[in-house]
């Protein structure tokens, strides 16, 4: 019996809009979720098979001042290495431009689904646990834009997954709907209450009627934190304190002096894919 695949992609807006909040977002949310997801055992549940895999996607903005469109790391099973990637992001630019959220989500979904050949021959393990956390503070670019290799999956025939070789024209909500079709959970964390992000989260829900899980907002009452009903590790991580977790800000560095994002392992620029 094949080991259960467990993968998590964190898709982060790399503009200055996130910079001031990043140490809080990592310490209070992303690190807790990641460590709980990668725990060898959860209460009452034995986790067999290979350790979970983690990957990072960084997206920027549309417009002439954008340093890049989308960058992505390779996969890692090393939680400390992944944390160093998160803390190594350099946040700059953005201004009044909308974020390339659509392209960032499309890249995250593409790497979670694997290459088209792999996906079509292996009938997508129904037990696979694949999750994405979108971290952004800006409105997404509102107009449909070309995204490559966007996977789609038939709701009636779950084994029928196709990855388009031609660019699809889509906006962020359309891409979010593909998450639900491909059985990938989508959660959203934002330091601001941005209505368009709530719409993206709702578009990505596999069960539109599912109630949004409650999150402890005592420390950051103005944050928008929407966790997928299918990402149990995230919900448990943020609903109670984890024993043995590091003290807040213990390993957080000042982001204004952080180097540009460095990712050990293969990196790619989504804009160069044709």
Could you characterize the architecture of this molecule?
The chain is of the alpha/beta class and 274 residues long. The chain contains seven helices and 13 strands. The protein has helices at residues 22-37, 79-87, 101-113, 116-121, 172-181, 195-203, 232-239, and strands at 6-13, 41-42, 45-46, 53-59, 70-72, 129-135, 145-147, 151-153, 161-163, 168-170, 185-190, 224-226, 268-269. The strands form four sheets. Strands 12-11-6-1-4-5-13 form a seven-stranded mixed sheet, with helices on both faces. It has a two-stranded antiparallel sheet with strand order 2-3. A hairpin with a 7-residue loop joins strand 8 (151-153) and strand 9 (161-163). Helix 1 (22-37) runs antiparallel to helix 2 (79-87), helix 1 packs across helix 7 (232-239) and helix 5 packs parallel to helix 6. It is globular.
The percent range for helix content is 25-40%
- Helical stretch tally: 7
Strand content: 15-25%
Order of helices and strands: EHEEEEHHHEEEEEHEHEHE
What's the story with the biggest beta sheet?
Answer: 7 strands, mixed
Give the total of beta strands: 13
